[in-house]
Amino acid sequence: MTCRNKNRIAGLILAGGEGRRWGGPKAWALLPNGESFLDACAMTLREAGASPIVATLPPGTEDPRIDGLDVLPLPESGMDMFGSLRAGLGRLVETPSWRVVAVLPVDHPLVRPETIIELVAVAGPAAIPSFNGKHGHPICLARTVAESIARGDVAGPTLREVLHAVKALSVPVDDPGVVANCNTPAALSAALSAANSEF
């Protein structure tokens, strides 16, 4: 995997959930600076050099018209994360230029672009970031693995099983954002405090 050519990196934002613990889809949850989680994730991927970038969104969602973002409303509500992942990768594999995809759940809006670049630079079928010994997101997948998931050759039922099967590499990173799962307002506040964020 390499990040020298931005067209060798693709981005996938998983944002198709209903966000019940937040009170609504987390794609539209706001950081203290007024930026949505979806905007923040898209910007992080763009700054890491990702193109194309696809976001899976809840059924019926209108295009938010975020620069460089291709939106994919899911066909039905209640799809699990692996189903959303497979749908998003199916859209991405239509573009032949990229060689690795960074898969970023929308409830991880504090990840740094440099972390994605670091993960992409690791050779192998998949890379998982870790911070202080704890695994997090985004996950980077080589195109061959992404294509297998999109085709249904790898059934899951979760990404964890796929990562285990392909012997994903654990990559220590200096980025607390990779383990900051901001799935509730309280979790976001705690993550911002822990990271001494400037948001």
Protein model, in words:
With 199 residues, this protein is α/β, with parallel strands linked by helices. The chain has a single domain, classed as Spore Coat Polysaccharide Biosynthesis Protein SpsA, Chain A (Alpha-Beta Complex), CATH 3.90.550. It is built from six helices and eight strands, in the order βαββαβαβββααβα. The protein has helices at residues 37-47, 81-92, 113-120, 143-151, 159-165, 185-195; strands spanning 9-14, 53-57, 69-73, 100-105, 126-131, 134-135, 139-142, 169-172. Strands 1, 2, 3, 4, 5, 6, 7 and 8 form an eight-stranded mixed sheet that branches. A hairpin with a 2-residue loop joins β5 (126-131) and β6. α2 (81-92) crosses α4 (143-151). It is globular and about 40 Å long. Residues 1-7 have low confidence and may be disordered.
Characterize the largest beta sheet: strand count, sense, and whether it forms a barrel.
Answer: 8 strands, mixed
Structure classification: alpha/beta
Number of domains: 1
Proportion of strand residues = 15-25%
Shape: globular
The count of strands amounts to: 8
Care to give the gist of this entry?
This protein has 199 residues and is an alpha/beta fold.
Topology (SSEs and partners):
Elements: E1 9-14, H1 37-47, E2 53-57, E3 69-73, H2 81-92, E4 100-105, H3 113-120, E5 126-131, E6 134-135, E7 139-142, H4 143-151, H5 159-165, E8 169-172, H6 185-195
Parallel strand pairs: 1-2, 1-4, 2-3, 5-8
Antiparallel strand pairs: 4-7, 5-6, 5-7
